[in-house]
Amino acid sequence: MAKFESNKEEINKSTVEVFNFLSDFNNFEKLMPEQVINWKSTALNCSFTIKGMADIAMLISEKIPYSKVVIVPEGDSKLRFNLTCLTNVITENKCNAQIIIDADINPMMSMMVSKPLQNFVNILAQRLKDLMEKQ
Q1: Which of 28, 60, 61, 118 would suit a FRET pair with 42, their CA atoms being 20 to 30 Å apart?
Q2: Could you tell me the residue ranges of all domains in the chain?
Q3: 4-20 tens-digit pLDDT
Q4: Does position 76 have pLDDT exceeding 90, yes or no?
Q5: Residue 85 contacts residue 67 (beta carbons within 8 Å)
Q6: Is the dihedral of CA 64, 128, 17, 27 positive or negative?
Q7: Would you put residue 47 in left (φ > 0), alpha (ψ -120 to 50) or beta?
Q8: Structure letter (DSSP) for residue 52
């Protein structure tokens, strides 16, 4: 498995607020880069298209209150991955957040997708920080 870890972002919100945001896919559209189109979501699942690449459906498979949300592909996806959102308390109103993708990618694909996936997790984490701190 290839692992892509975002930078740890320090967010001026509580872990409860960040966890609750990450526990609802209806919030995720605001985090996505512009290449993501045709977004559809409920609280627990979503589907979208990455322009010129693939259709993806995901679901929230695990929640550990105030520390971890695990997202996996839904349906008969050819992509096998876990997207994990971690939050960590710093103070009552400040936390760290990190996004991690563990993907089952063959070595040839890894060369093509490593940089985009690394950029993707960093964009998600940065947008999460920006969005949470605006609320």
Answers
A1: 118
A2: 2-134
A3: 999 999 999 999 999 99
A4: no
A5: no
A6: negative
A7: beta
A8: T
Task: Report whether pLDDT(78) > 80.
Answer: no
Q: Please give the CATH superfamily to which domain 2-134 belongs.
A: START domain (3.30.530.20)
Q: Determine phi and psi for 104, rounding to 5 degrees.
A: -90, 95
Fill in the amino acid letter for 1: M
Separation of alpha carbons 121 and 98, rounded Å: 8
Around 77, how many Cα atoms within 13 Å sit in the side-chain half-sphere?
Answer: 19
103 neighbors 79 (Cβ within 8 angstroms):
yes
d(CA 81, CA 1): 9
Nearby residues of 109 by Cβ (< 8 Å), 6 or more positions away? none
51 sits in which H/E element: none
What distance in Å separates the CA atoms of residue 68 and residue 85, rounded to the nearest whole number?
6
CB distance 58 to 69 below 8 Å: no
Q: Residue 95 burial by CB count (10 A; 0-12/13-18/19+): exposed, middle or buried?
A: buried
pLDDT digits (tens, 9 = 90+) for 30-57: 999 999 999 999 999 999 998 888 889 9
